[in-house]
Design brief:
The chain is an alpha/beta fold. It is built from eleven helices and ten strands. It is globular. The structure holds 5'-O-[(R)-(carboxyoxy)(hydroxy)phosphoryl]adenosine and zinc ion (ZN).
Length: about 350
C-alpha cells in the first residue's frame, strides 16, 4: 500500500533527513542515497538518566523536546545543506518509548508537511541491521545478530522488508544483562562499555559462569540466570580493594555472554547455509564479541560485517538506509504516521 504526501518513485540522487529518538539519544543525520553520511549528530541523555540507574521515560521525552530542533539544525549545518536540498524524511517509528518516539515523529511530520516532502517511518532494528550498508557493500541474503539494550535476536535477512526471526532471547537482552551486572557491581548506567573496559584487564577463565541454552539446539538465548550467577558469586566472594576480582569477574561474565552469542550465531549460519553475517546494535561495540566473531569468520570462511562503534549504538544515519530504499521505491508513510512502542521486526514488509 502506498500512502502519503508523494506517491511517485524518486529516481534521482536523494538527500534524506533522518531522525531517531526511540530511547535516550536525540539524533539527526543527512544521508545521500542511503549510503553516504554527510552528517550524523547525536545528543546523548546518558548523564541525566545515570542518576536514576536507567532511562526515565518522562525525562527522556522532555530532553528530546529540548534538543531536537537544535540537533536537526546541526545535522543540516554540518552537511552544508538547507531544508530546500532535502528530498525526503525518514524517522524511527518504533519500537521504543512511546513519548520519546512521538517527539521525533511529530517533528518529522511537521517538516514533511511544511516542505511537502515524502516521509517514511522506519523500524529501529531495521536501522541497526542496515547500518552496515553505510560502510560496506553487503549482498543478500545474510544472517543478522542484533544485540542491543532491548534486543538479542538472530534474523535471516533476504532483502529490505524480508525478515525472518531465527531465534531470540527468552528473557533479558544482552545489553540489559551487561547493564544489570554493571549495576550489581556499582557501575553507572549504562555499564556495558565499562564492563568491556574492566574485562580487558581481567582474566576470563578465573570464574566459570554458566553458558545458558548453549547446547539446547535452538537459536534462542537466556541471560537472566547469568546475572543471578554473578550476584550469587559476589555474595560468596566480596570485592577486594585492589579491584582484581572485579576485573576477573567482568572478563569471565563477558566471555560467557560472548561464547553463547558466537556459538548460536555459528549454528544459525550452519543451519541456513548463508555465509554472510551482520552483527549490529550497541553490544556489537563489545571488544570480546567483535574478536569472537572475527575468529568465527576466519575459521568458517564467513563474510563478516560489523559497523564502526559509532554506527552500532543509536544514531539517525542508520535509519536513512532503509528509509532511502522505501522512498526510492515509492513507499511512503502518510501524515497519520503514529509511534509503535512495540513492533516485531518480522511484521515489517515493503508494503507498509
Ligand atoms: O543499540 P543501543 O545503543 O540502544 C538500544 O537500542 O538499546 O544499545 C545500547 C546497549 C546498552 O545496553 C549498552 O550497555 C550496550 O549497548 N553497550 C555495550 C557496549 N557498548 C554499548 N555492551 C557491551 N560492551 C560494550 N562495549
Ligand atoms: Zn538501538
Amino acid at each position: 500500500m502506498i500512502q502519503g504526501v508523494f506517491s511517485t518513485p524518486l529516481v534521482f540522487s536523494m538527500l534524506l533527513l533522518s531522525i531517531e529518538s526511540s530511547c535516550d539519544e536525540t539524533a539527526a543525520a543527512v544521508v545521500q542515497d542511503g549510503r553516504s553520511v554527510l552528517s550524523n549528530i547525536i545528543a546523548s541523555q546518558v548523564a541525566t538518566h545515570a542518576e536514576y540507574g536507567g532511562v526515565v521515560p518522562e525525562i527522556a521525552s522532555r530532553k528530546h523536546l529540548e534538543a531536537i530542533s537544535f540537533i536537526i539544525e546541526e545535522a543540516l549545518r554540518e552537511a552544508s545543506v538547507t531544508l530546500s536540498d532535502i528530498g525526503g524524511i525518514s524517522v524511527t517509528q518504533g519500537p521504543g518509548l512511546a513519548g520519546a518516539l512521538l517527539v521525533g515523529i511529530s517533528t518529522a511530520k511537521a517538516i514533511a508537511y511544511a516542505r511537502k516532502l515524502p516521509l517514511i517511518g522506519i523500524h529501529h532494528i531495521e536501522g541497526h541491521i542496515f547500518a552496515a550498508f553505510l560502510e560496506q557493500k553487503v549482498e543478500f541474503p545474510f544472517v543478522a545478530l542484533v544485540v542491543s539494550g532491548g534486543h538479542t535476536h538472530l534474523y535471516r535477512i533476504d532483502g529490505f522488508g524480508r525478515y525472518q526471526i531465527l531465534g531470540q532471547t527468552l528473557d533479558d537482552a544482552a545489553g540489559e544483562a551487561f547493564d544489570k551486572v554493571a549495576k550489581i557491581i556499582g557501575l553507572p548506567y549504562p555499564g556495558g562499555a565499562t564492563i568491556d573496559r574492566l574485562a580487558s584487564r581481567g582474566a576470563p577463565k578465573t570464574i566459570r559462569f554458566p553458558r545458558p541454552l548453549l547446547h539446547d539446539g535452538s537459536f534462542n538465548f537466556s541471560f537472566s540466570g547469568l546475572k543471578t550467577a554473578v550476584m550469587t558469586y559476589l555474595r560468596k566472594n566480596p570485592v577486594s580493594d585492589d579491584g582484581i576480582l572485579l576485573e576477573n569477574l567482568c572478563a569471565s561474565f563477558q566471555e560467557a555472554v560472548c561464547e553463547v552469542l558466537v556459538s548460536k550465531t555459528a549454528a544459525a549460519i550452519a543451519d541456513t547455509g548463508i555465509s554472510r553475517l551482520v552483527v549490529a546494535g550497541g553490544v556489537a561495540c563489545n571488544s570480546g564479541l567483535r574478536s569472537g566473531m572475527k575468529k568465527l569468520a576466519v575459521e568458517k570462511g564467513i563474510d563478516l560485517y560489523i559497523p564502526s562503534p559509532l554506527l552500532c549504538t543509536d544514531n539517525a544515519a542508520m535509519i536513512a538506509v532503509p528509509g532511502d530504499y522505501y522512498l526510492e521505491n515509492g513507499v511512503c508513510s502518510g501524515l497519520g504516521l503514529d509511534a509503535r512502542a512495540s513492533w516485531p521486526l518480522d511484521t515489517v514488509s515493503v508494503e507498509r
